[in-house]
Amino acid sequence: MLDLHNRINESLDTLIEKEALIGSELRGMLKGFKEEKTDVGYSFGKLCIIHYEAFSEHCNEDIYKVAAAIELLILSFDIIDDLQDQDAEYSWSRTPDLSLNTAVAMLVMASKIIRESNFEHKGLAVQLLEKYALLSINGQQLDLLNYCRDEQSYLRMIEQKSGSLTAMSCLIGETLAKGEVSTQVEEYSKYIGIIQQIKNDIQDLKKWDRKNDLLNKKYTLPIIFLLLTENSVSKSVKDYYNEDIVTFMDNFVIERELTSSGAIRYALALKNLYKHKALQFLEDVTMDNGSKDFIKKLMK
């Protein structure tokens, strides 16, 4: 997978450098933002490539450009999300107006790169990018509104917000190879995004800082579970979420309650349920063991 990382990284550098419709200032910000995220890896682009290779009888070098395009879209969404949440320490948070413009440029470039590729089914790929990008944006809107306060509505929201992006990456690779998508790939790729989001929700509660969802009065699966319990700790959390009530939050007590009440176990159980479903669909897909191992790692 290191080779895929390097190929995607090289394609990103080339595409940013050769885009004739942007000036030096915008190009410089694109390069800088891309470099800040390089260490995170290119899992979305890799998903695109391995699904293309799984269903294609020959290799088209443009697949690395398409993978880079997907990573540009993902980075643009990350930037916009950070600007909305105002809780990141990346350089784009210091210049939100210019950074937003850069993120919009990335979105347009992503579609443009795929449309200008030499794949037979590039039109279908662009349609998939537009469909799942819009679904993800709608999920992000629901998340920002903080409306999803029960298990089912929350799971539907993260399916759109996060599941759509992993589905988009896998399905674009598949459709470029054979001109159609399969139910199996659509289902397990969507579940990967849900699994990753639940993991993030659990992790965010372990740090008592400005990214902590509870401090920000956000609703996630562990918090929803905690709020349904009936004890003094859950009452203090409910009071904290109530804008009309001022209450003191003891982080040590809250952290202990999240564990002892079963809130964390509940979220982990749902994550494992989606993992089980995803693995069942993955078993029905013909793919080399290395690619399957990479996909399985995203479900841990």
From TrEMBL:
Key word Nucleus present: no
Keywords in alphabetical order: Magnesium, Metal-binding, Transferase
Transmembrane portions of the chain: none
Domain of life, per lineage: Bacteria
Cofactor names: Mg(2+)
PANTHER family: ALL TRANS-POLYPRENYL-DIPHOSPHATE SYNTHASE PDSS1, GERANYLGERANYL PYROPHOSPHATE SYNTHASE
Family (UniProt): Belongs to the FPP/GGPP synthase family.
Protein name: Transcriptional regulator
